[in-house]
Amino acid sequence: MSCFVRNCKNIKRLMPVDSQITFHRFPKDDVRFREWLCSIDLGWNLNNIKWSENMFICSEHFNEQDF
Ligand SMILES: [Zn+2]
Q: Which residues form the THAP-type domain (predicted)?
């Protein structure tokens, strides 16, 4: 399980057990999925991205109020 954000190097299995970073699967609902994509600056064309169950994002890209 690794983070979807290109310039993020967080990979779950390499994390210390007591890491504060958590991994989240993208919401399957298309509207919420787009909201997530827009809330993180991925730096590439968002229109070509489709939801996948293998897409995860780590908690480093969230603000606390987004949880
Ligand atoms: Zn990340």
A: 1-67
